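Section: Multi-chain targets

For targets with more than one molecule, the full set of components is provided together so that the structure can be written out for the assembly as a whole rather than chain by chain. Components appear in the order listed by the source. The example entry contains two components.
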Amino acid sequence: MRVTRNIVAGVLSGIGVVVLLQQYSVLYPTGTVAILGVVFGVAVQFAVSTLAQRRNPGFAGASPMTTAATAEPVTDWAGPAGVETSTDVAMWVPTHRVPSEGLDAWSQPDGSVPPGARLDAGLDVRVEQVDNGWARIVCENGWSGWVDERRLEMRP
Amino acid sequence: MSPRRSLAAIGFAMFVSLALAAKPAGASMTGPCTATVNGQDVAALSASSPSDAIDVKESDDIGVQARSSSQIGSYRIQLEYAGIRWTVAKGQSTDNAWNRAVKVKDYARYGAGLYRVHGVSDGTSTCDGAVLIKVVGSPLTTPAGLVAAGFVVVGLANIAATLRGGRKAVAS
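Its structure, encoded as tokens over all components, is:
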């Protein structure tokens, strides 16, 4: 959905800019210029979307960094009673919150590699699994990653 | 697409745009002909540089004249926009010259700005002369300008929505 929206907005804005430049007599639109305008417009839309996603992994519409579970679910995890451990976004209920200093996230539970994203302070997350001090969290939009379980705050 | 790739794509698009924009203006006349538009020699004008465009008003008529060293059969006047050409006037010549007046408002009623006009002669030799015409007017009062501005607003609105979505997630 977001991809389609970015393409449509990029194509329209690219054409719009080229036509406005022509209308204001700044540029004569050859076929090449028109195509470049469209490509540039689409590139800008995707760049903004990607940068926003990188800076705020929990923002609506972000693509999941990973959806594959690499560890077995922990059945004795002491989460809130009655909360189901489901990855279905429609069933998403937050269980924890990112601490005030923010939190690094990885695509895999492996601290030997640099974190792939930084979660913003106060972001609500749902813990799906814990594995040897790591917690696989899922954001409201379905984005998931691994974080240091000990640093997550329980929701009030 | 990663941020680095996105920025690289934008940089590449800008580089190609600048490279193409910096390309020397092509010849505006091909074939053994001479031509004038509103009395100005087409061969002396670039067909791609806005600074060489001939200023006209929407209410004006453009006078196009051509002369060849050989017999001219048919001729046509064409407009080109974004690489697409269409004929706005055509006729026959019985000797080696022709002239024709074209009403600007017949083809520029939807917008202002730059248009490329071609004068094409067929016959013993084929000639094609082109020049940029600048139709004077306020873009935001023309249908083409308003639609283009609307398209740009759509793009900006999508960017704003994307950024707002990110902030909302952080605040939640």
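The mean pLDDT of chain B is 80.
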